[in-house]
Specification:
0% of the residues lie in helices and 55% in strands. The strands form 4 sheets. It has a 7-stranded mixed beta sheet with strand order 1-20-17-22-15-13-14, with no helix packed on it. The protein has a 7-stranded antiparallel beta sheet with strand order 2-3-4-11-6-9-12, with no helix packed on it. Strands 5-10-7-8 form a 4-stranded antiparallel beta sheet, with no helix packed on it. The protein contains no helices and 22 strands. It starts with a strand and ends in a 6-residue tail after the last strand. By secondary structure, the protein is mostly beta strands.
């Protein structure tokens, strides 16, 4: 098993006043040649957006963009005419494909919104842009992993990649085993709250651990803990 540790305090950081963002991988003004991506996982940003503020309309193409609100609400608009509110416990995905413009704004004028912004290189290039969001309640992932993004599961939001995202809420001393979904994939684990152990590595809040060259991993919750697991191809392909 091969691992790479990204501690919370080693992440890139940008604070623009309206946006306070921590970058697990190179992004914007933060450039670290050793942290460009983990396989097809290109971006994992931990964003806080001030009340009433947000990302105005801007373009993307050929990227799978996942947004996971941790608190508060996001207002999504895009060039296909979609106009959606994304709330805590929702998972949103936008396949930018051949090209799309979108904005993501804090839907509230009186509180911050905190969310994860995750980019994944696509499996196939220049597909028609797609959008989907679904709700996944914390009670449904109590002491178990729940798949929230997948290419082959109608209960999850669809992704144009052989990638699977799972969320779990484990009680203290709870354990779970995860089996890699596809040969050649790795796993990136990102701790949202609490403290967990994988192998002999202890991870705290906002730590990330990339794991490859293994078929499965065992996870132990040292405290009540919530985490995101991203099962991702280690080789970047596209056509």
């Amino acid at each position: 098993m091969k691992t790479i540790l990204h501690t919370a305090d080693s992440r890139g950081h940008a604070n623009f006043g309206w946006l306070n963002s921590y970058h697990s991988f190179s992004f914007g003004h933060y450039h670290n040649p050793e942290r460009m991506h983990f396989g097809a996982l290109r971006v994992l940003n931990d964003d806080t957006v001030s009340a009433g503020m947000g990302f105005s309309k801007h373009p993307h193409d050929n990227m799978e963009i996942v947004s996971i609100p941790l608190s508060g609400d996001l207002h999504h608009r895009d060039s296909t005419g979609r106009d959606k509110i994304i709330r805590q416990n929702d998972v949103q995905i936008m396949s930018a494909g051949s090209g799309i413009e979108h904005s993501e704004m804090n839907a509230n004028k009186d509180k911050e919104v905190k969310f994860l912004q995750i980019w994944v290189f696509p499996k196939n290039r220049n597909i028609a842009p797609r959008y989907e969001q679904k709700t996944f309640l914390p009670t449904d992932r109590a002491n178990q992993l729940v798949t929230v993004v997948a290419p082959d599961d109608e209960k999850a939001v669809w992704i144009n990649q052989d990638a699977w995202f799972s969320l779990a809420n484990l009680s203290k001393e709870g354990t779970t085993e995860y089996t890699i979904r596809k040969n050649g994939n790795g796993v990136y684990v990102f701790v949202l709250t609490g403290n967990i152990t994988i192998g002999d590595q202890v991870l705290s809040q906002r730590d990330g651990l990339g794991i490859s060259e293994t078929d499965s991993i065992q996870i132990l919750a040292n405290t009540d803990a919530e985490f995101l697991l991203i099962d991702i191809p280690m080789k970047i392909t596209g056509e």
